[in-house]
Amino acid sequence: MNKWIAGLALAGGVLLAGPALAQMERATAPAGTEVYFISPQEGATVESPLTVRMGLKGMGVAPAGTQADGTGHHHLLVDTPLDEVELDQPLPANDAMRHFGGGQTETTLELEPGEHTLQLLFMDANHLSFAPPVTSEPLTITVE
Predict the structure, then answer these.
(1) Domains in the chain with CATH codes
(2) Per residue in 133-144, pLDDT tens?
(3) How far apart are CA 56 and CA 116, in angstroms?
(4) In angstroms, how far is CA 68 from the centroid of its own chain?
């Protein structure tokens, strides 16, 4: 009897995990989709806190979890090279990888004085990167 219950539990777990695993597939963004910085500009010298404005062409911005074709939301990499990001997994939220799951297109950052690199990464409803990734060029700024 216990083996039967354990087998049933295992089968149920596999059936429930199937849809979750399928959701981990990376979607393709429409051709021509671009994400970019409206501000600050490359090479700018700024004061902290600074306002970052994010732009998008070819798709729409929607809150995380919104399952609508042609939408996603912004993430901001702060002093984090793209090759250090696991694009096949949901992006963790921390000071180096900022999430804008509410559909925000603007934020205020507090950064220490010095040189910083910023890069935008536009992701789907589940915080997964599109395939290929939709990223801005890295932007280097100096904070006074």
Answers:
(1) 2-143 (2.60.40.10)
(2) 999 999 999 999
(3) 22
(4) 16
